[in-house]
């Protein structure tokens, strides 16, 4: 029987040499005259083990990693095609603790299947949600999503069902579904992993959104820095269209929905939904004032759902297994699961999908294994570049939208970046202001001017120039940006700055000599 070997085609695995590993494996198969084939799967999300090669055996899938091309001959010598032991052997993939502890609903197939095989997709429960949706009334689909408690995974945590209802109820002959796949947050990669590892789940989710709201056209807006995601997504859309999943009659229902992939040049602000819509329309990516909401006047002024990749990719399982099934996971008003992306200075970095409710400490210390450097964890930034820095004293905060907000933080797109005790928090605060200055769309003054003044003020503190006065000035500036900015880029930049100042005040104290001169 032909043996199946899995070598990821995910960008993270490719960056670590997966292509050369696949070539080396193919060469060994040929020279040894073996009956084996290579499937290029997505990533399991265990980055420290990439490239993670798996072999399907009678005992289940056996994992080996991280594999370098030079390891390949010894793997064959050891008999890895039969799942034999080897220094790189990690045992049964699904029993690796990092995977075994997860609740994979949205990422159930990621790393398991061939991303472009519809057969695989269907074999692993794919398309069941859409099959149900085509038989339902739009309002019932919307109700099911509302009942599931799903909230937008792009950052703001807005209830997805309510957004869909607004679009469903909006008058208009033409409506749109726009998938926000810009994924600009540093340290986040969940959207990319879905697009590269299980693109049909996003297509299915978007088609369901179309049926639910009456939208017949969808766009996936992503960035040029994601070439592999673009390639896989584009190919998957083509396959889905040929299979009748997309087109004038979705799954033979007589209801139309089609989509295309659009690529932006990659500006952080183009992830903001209104700037995204401008970019999608071929205009400069500048933020639009709200109202009107995109749900009422979005793409080309028409009612538009703008949802994050993970929000949309979570819909198929909700339609398939039911609202109650999904809602049963989580805590408080944070229902279901969330793919946490653990990055930065961390021993076991990667994607960890789990029900809401784990504490930050559990994620960083137990699951992430502490820092890669082996030094103590000092700060964790949660929610991307606009997220707050949490000190160890706040590690008991559960992963929940409200719990983080109560501690002046945010979950955002669920990226967490870990820093050890060598981090300089004043530099991090300065970086937040600098990032905002570089990425600002320039539409409003608090963000455009405030961020530049913020960099200057942080520099003055670092130089010991009137430190007390400049600390107060920086806090005051943050206040102005927080309440005076038009969008969350200027409005949330104060989160990393103020959290750094409040939790790590010692880093904002000037050199003693300058203090004396004050
Ligand atoms: C500066 C800025 C950047 C953003 N970047 C992204 C992004 O890359 N991806 C995303 O889904 N949402 C991003 N958002 C949030 C979107 O504006 C919007 O809330 C989201 O796409 C809605 O989808 P959801 O309800 O499914 O989360 C960003 C917001 C701001 C202010
Ligand atoms: S806050 Fe910044 S990015 Fe947002 S609208 Fe104002 S200038 Fe543009």
Automatic annotation (TrEMBL):
Domain NADH-ubiquinone oxidoreductase 51kDa subunit iron-sulphur binding as annotated: residue spans: 426-471
Organism for this UniProt entry: Shinella oryzae
Iron-sulfur is among the record's keywords: yes
Keyword check for Zinc: no
UniProtKB keywords: 4Fe-4S, Iron, Iron-sulfur, Metal-binding
Protein's UniProt name: NADH-quinone oxidoreductase subunit NuoF
A Pfam family per the record: NADH_4Fe-4S
InterPro entries per UniProt: NADH-UbQ_OxRdtase_51kDa_CS, Nuo51_FMN-bd, Nuo51_FMN-bd_sf, Nuop51_4Fe4S-bd, Nuop51_4Fe4S-bd_sf, Thioredoxin-like_sf
Family statement: Belongs to the complex I 51 kDa subunit family.
SMART domains: NADH_4Fe-4S
Cofactors named for this entry: FMN
């Amino acid at each position: 029987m032909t043996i199946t070997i899995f070598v990821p085609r995910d960008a993270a695995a490719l960056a670590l040499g997966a292509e050369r590993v696949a070539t080396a494996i193919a060469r060994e198969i040929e020279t040894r005259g073996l009956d084996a084939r290579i499937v290029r799967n997505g990533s399991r999300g265990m980055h420290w083990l990439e490239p993670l090669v798996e072999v399907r055996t009678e005992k289940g899938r056996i994992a080996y990693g991280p594999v370098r091309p030079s390891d390949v001959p010894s793997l064959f010598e050891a008999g890895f095609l039969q799942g034999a032991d080897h220094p790189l052997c990690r045992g049964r993939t699904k029993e690796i603790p990092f995977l075994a502890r997860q609740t994979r609903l949205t990422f159930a197939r990621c790393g398991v299947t061939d991303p472009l095989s519809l057969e695989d997709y269907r074999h692993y429960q794919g398309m069941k949600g859409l099959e149900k949706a085509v038989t339902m009334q739009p309002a019932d689909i919307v109700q099911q999503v509302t009942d599931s408690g799903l909230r937008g995974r792009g950052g703001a945590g807005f209830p997805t069902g309510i957004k869909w209802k607004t679009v469903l109820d909006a008058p208009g002959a033409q409506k749109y579904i726009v998938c926000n796949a810009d994924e600009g947050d540093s340290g986040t990669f969940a959207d990319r992993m879905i697009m590269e590892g299980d693109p049909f789940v996003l297509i299915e989710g978007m088609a369901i959104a179309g049926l639910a709201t009456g939208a017949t056209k969808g766009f996936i807006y992503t960035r040029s820095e994601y070439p592999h995601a673009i390639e896989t997504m584009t190919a998957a859309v083509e396959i889905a269209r040929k299979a009748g999943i997309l087109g004038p009659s979705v799954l033979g229902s007589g209801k139309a929905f089609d989509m295309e992939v659009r690529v932006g040049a990659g500006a952080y602000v183009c992830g903001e939904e209104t700037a995204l819509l401008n970019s999608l329309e071929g205009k400069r990516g500048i933020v639009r004032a709200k109202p009107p909401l995109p749900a009422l006047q979005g793409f080309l002024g028409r009612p538009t759902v703008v949802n994050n990749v993970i929000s949309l990719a979570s819909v198929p399982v909700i339609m398939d297994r039911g609202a109650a099934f999904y809602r049963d996971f989580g805590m408080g008003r944070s229902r279901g699961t969330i793919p946490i992306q653990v990055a930065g200075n961390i021993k076991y970095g990667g994607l960890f999908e789990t029900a809401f409710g784990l504490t930050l400490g559990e994620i960083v210390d137990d699951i992430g294994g502490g820092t890669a450097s082996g030094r103590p964890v000092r700060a964790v930034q949660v929610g991307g570049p606009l997220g707050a820095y949490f000190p160890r004293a706040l590690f008991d905060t559960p992963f929940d939208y409200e719990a983080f907000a109560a501690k002046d933080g945010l979950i955002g797109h669920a990226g967490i970046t870990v820093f050890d005790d060598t981090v300089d928090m004043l530099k991090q605060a300065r970086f937040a202001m600098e990032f905002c200055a570089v990425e600002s769309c320039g539409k409003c003054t608090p963000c455009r001017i405030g961020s530049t003044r913020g960099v200057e003020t942080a520099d003055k503190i670092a130089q010991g120039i009137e430190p007390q006065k400049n600390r107060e000035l920086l806090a005051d500036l943050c206040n102005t940006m927080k309440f005076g900015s038009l969008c969350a880029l200027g409005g949330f930049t104060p989160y990393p700055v103020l959290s750094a100042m409040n939790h790590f005040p010692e880093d904002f104290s000037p050199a003693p000599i300058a203090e004396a001169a004050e």
